[in-house]
Amino acid sequence: MKTTHLKSRLLLTALTCCAVGASALLPQAASAKDLGIGSEAPALNIEHWVQDGNGFFKPVTEFEKDKVYVVEFWATWCGPCIQSMPHLADLQNKYRGNGVQIISVSDESLDEVKDLLGKKDENVGKTFAEVTAAYSLTTDPDRSVYNDYMTAAKQQGIPTAFVVGKTGLVEWIGHPMDMDGPLAAVVDGKWDREAFAAEMVAEQEMQQSMQRLSMLASTGKFKEAIALAEAQGKQATTDASKQRWMEIKYSLKLSAGMLDDDSLAFFRNRIKALKSDPLAMAQFGYSLYGQAQQGVDIKPLLADVMAAMEEVAEGADPKMKPLMFNTLAMLASESGDLKKAVSAQQAAIDATDDERQKKRLMVMLDELKQKAAGGSAGDATEK
């Protein structure tokens, strides 16, 4: 088995993804005043207003009563920020007549922002200027607004959105892709600010526990980390939190090589549940393969996950098939079944029309064929 440090590093990557979601991490500066749910939203002192909703919106400094604002932080280099742009435009168009203004704030130079706007978003076939035309796109290079919001609220990843309600108070903080429900409730006057504030406190406490857990795992103290996850799960007050801590506990047990009957039952049930979500199934299979590369014995789960992936891959959306079959090929190779690995990799190649992707997949196919021809495991494992 490889070193505990390597296993811990892999686990920490997974835990970090779980903790911050699809966000880009940024350095933090000191803040003179904390900002939270129910706080008065700081005034905006934005240097450059680049897009104005096709002339519909004017620059904002103070928030007007009975209007709702979204202050969202982004950057040109941030993939999740770029992916959120069409959604922000859709929300702005939806609520344009309801007194809602979305204001996106970067901290980059004006030239950097304008450079992005002149480029084409290949996913939608429009320039970024066209994609973001519906709402207010800005940049504030001195980072004063960033510090007043992101730093003050102890937010470390972008994109992050702040919903400012009709009374000028911060009602919600989170990823813009999760904003639909809260924004609708704030606009309709049905938002429960106190309940969400309690959720935020619980989330912050979870993040603190995650940091302690990560420190334990990074030093190979898996038993202590597992005990902490179990304790946190018992203290959790919502079903969602309980589920998250349970998943973390079993991920720790997997990384520690503790695949007992209880753990196997959990992962087998999870594999069954993932059959309805091909992408999640592929991600699980890939993470399992990653664990194996760090020395974790995943053989007790290989037959289950390979059978499920093969079943899901056959009926998956054509765009998903290359990923599904490629992941299946890696797992089959790990199991020693090189005949299945070669077959799955060929299926991945046959499923894609992307020539660059096809070339990358061909490289792995050649490696699998060479491995099989060498007789290292392929002939003995033909089933």
Structure description:
With 383 residues, the protein is of the alpha+beta class. The chain folds into three domains: 1-21 and 192-258, no CATH class; 31-191, Glutaredoxin (3-Layer(aba) Sandwich); 276-383, Alpha Horseshoe (Serine Threonine Protein Phosphatase 5, Tetratricopeptide repeat). 56% of the residues lie in helices and 10% in strands. The chain contains 15 helices and ten strands. The chain has helices at 4-20, 79-95, 110-117, 128-131, 144-151, 180-188, 193-218, 222-235, 239-255, 261-273, 278-293, 299-315, 321-335, 338-350, 355-373; strands at 24-25, 48-52, 68-73, 100-106, 120-121, 126-127, 136-139, 157-158, 160-164, 170-174. The strands form three sheets. A six-stranded mixed β-sheet has the order 2-7-4-3-9-10, sandwiched between helices. A hairpin with a 5-residue loop joins strand 9 (160-164) and strand 10 (170-174). Helix 11 runs parallel beside helix 13. The longest helix is centred in the middle third of the chain and has 26 residues, at 193-218. Residues 1-23, 25-32 and 376-383 have low confidence and may be disordered.
What is the fold's blueprint, element by element?
Blueprint: H1 4-20, E1 24-25, E2 48-52, E3 68-73, H2 79-95, E4 100-106, H3 110-117, E5 120-121, E6 126-127, H4 128-131, E7 136-139, H5 144-151, E8 157-158, E9 160-164, E10 170-174, H6 180-188, H7 193-218, H8 222-235, H9 239-255, H10 261-273, H11 278-293, H12 299-315, H13 321-335, H14 338-350, H15 355-373
Parallel strand pairs: 3-4, 4-7
Antiparallel strand pairs: 1-8, 2-7, 3-9, 5-6, 9-10
